[in-house]
């Protein structure tokens, strides 16, 4: 009996979140209390010789009707609570499915799963998952073959704008930075827009925000600004120590896209830093860095003295040897030997 009372009490507590059902239950309960009070007064009056003409059986019919109404009201509340619990379970399942799909980089499918989750119950968990999927989808920036970037931005931006309605949102700087990245993707598609303002808004909230520092530095490189200005923001993001892979991915992509002498020198500096800190280098960036060495120090090039890279020649040599040991990067030993010889010669000259 005690367990039944506890379950009923728990169901009623969950139903308190449904105002309409709670009001109906309160009205029925109040009616029963009033009727019970009236019956007690009637009995009391009967005991004092009250000659009221109201038949006793009518009073009991009224009482029974009230009790039945109370039972039906409680049953309705329990049904509502059960339905609410079921919807919450389904919402949690779709949210978990969205996370799995995002891990497989199936972002459009993950977005649809979150739509289904929120159709059943919008919770803090669905809101958090929505932001995480939005961020990753934007960062990947792959709308699919022959698809415009707007396929991503049109889906994601409204959700980020909705999150910004909360002025105290704990991830407000992250959201602003990713709104800036969405504008960058649109800029690539249309040639209009400037994400820099949104990045700076994010930095005004959190000067060490990894996303805002990285994305602003990336934008400066794309705009042909001095690499020293971008380096400041990239270095800040690296120093935070959070999600270094994300920072390096954007840094390397920006430098590879720039494709000039200054960017080549900066690429060698960055790759050398990654070697020294035991960071993983993706195959595409490794091959690009190797090609930069061939352009700068190959037998057919007119090599500089290497000082523009900003790191010692010994480090440049060690980084080149490291690159040649990455599978698929170097396929001609004689060229590697020429570059090593050139760097050794430059070091000897520098020592004189």
Topology of helices and strands:
Layout: H1 2-15, H2 19-47, H3 56-103, H4 107-120, H5 124-140, H6 150-163, H7 172-190, H8 196-205, H9 210-222, H10 227-240, H11 244-258, H12 261-276, H13 283-297, H14 313-324, H15 333-351
Helix pairs in contact: 1-3, 2-3, 3-4, 3-5, 4-5, 5-6, 5-7, 6-7, 7-8, 7-9, 8-9, 9-10, 9-11, 11-12, 12-13, 12-14, 14-15
Approximately how much helix is present in the residues?
over 70%
Structural class: mainly alpha
Mean of all residue-level pLDDT scores: 84
The succession of helices and strands, N to C, reads HHHHHHHHHHHHHHH
Radius of gyration from the CA trace? 35 Å
How would the global form be characterised?
Answer: elongated
Number of helical elements: 15
Low-confidence stretches: 4-17
- The beta-strand count equals 0
* Percentage of β-strand residues: under 5%
Distance between the termini: 96 Å
Characterize the main sheet.
none
Provide a quick synopsis of the model.
This protein is mainly alpha-helical. The chain is built from 15 helices and no strands.
Structure explained in plain terms:
This protein has 352 residues and is mainly α. It has a domain at 259-352. Helices cover 76% and strands 0% of the residues. It has helices at residues 2-15, 19-47, 56-103, 107-120, 124-140, 150-163, 172-190, 196-205, 210-222, 227-240, 244-258, 261-276, 283-297, 313-324, 333-351. The longest helix has 48 residues, at 56-103. 29% of the residues are buried. Mean pLDDT is 84; it is low at 4-17.
């Amino acid at each position: 009996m005690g367990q039944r009372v506890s379950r009923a009490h728990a169901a009623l507590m969950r139903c308190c979140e449904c105002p309409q059902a709670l009001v109906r239950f309160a009205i029925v309960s109040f009616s029963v209390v009033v009727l019970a009070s009236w019956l007690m007064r009637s009995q009391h009056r009967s005991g004092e010789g009250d000659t009221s003409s109201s038949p006793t059986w009518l009073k009991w019919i009224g009482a029974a009707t009230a009790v039945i109404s109370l039972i039906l009201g409680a049953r309705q509340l329990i049904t509502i609570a059960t339905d609410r619990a079921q919807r919450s379970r389904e919402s949690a399942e779709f949210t978990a499915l969205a996370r799995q799909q995002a891990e497989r980089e199936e972002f459009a499918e993950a977005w649809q799963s979150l739509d289904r989750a929120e159709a059943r119950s919008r919770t803090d968990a669905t809101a958090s998952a929505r932001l995480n999927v939005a961020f990753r989808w934007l960062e990947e920036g792959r709308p699919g073959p022959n698809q415009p970037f707007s396929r991503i931005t049109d889906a994601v931006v409204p959700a980020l704008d909705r999150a910004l309605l909360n002025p105290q949102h704990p991830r407000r700087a992250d959201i602003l930075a990713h709104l800036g990245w969405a504008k960058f993707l649109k800029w690539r598609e249309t040639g209009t827009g400037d994400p820099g303002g949104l990045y700076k808004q994010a930095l005004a909230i959190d000067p060490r925000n990894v996303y805002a520092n990285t994305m602003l530095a990336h934008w400066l490189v794309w705009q042909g600004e001095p690499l020293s200005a971008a380096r400041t923001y990239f270095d800040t993001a690296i120093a935070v120590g959070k999600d270094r892979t994300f920072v390096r991915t954007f840094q390397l992509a920006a430098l590879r896209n720039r494709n000039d002498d200054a960017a080549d020198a900066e690429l060698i500096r960055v790759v050398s830093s990654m070697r020294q800190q035991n960071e993983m280098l993706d195959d595409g960036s490794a091959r690009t860095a190797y090609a930069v060495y061939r352009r700068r120090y190959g037998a057919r090039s007119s090599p500089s003295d290497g000082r523009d890279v900003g790191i010692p020649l010994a480090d440049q040599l060690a980084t080149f040897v490291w690159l040649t040991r990455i599978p698929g990067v170097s396929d001609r030993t004689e060229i590697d030997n020429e570059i090593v010889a050139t760097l050794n010669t430059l070091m000897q000259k520098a020592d004189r």
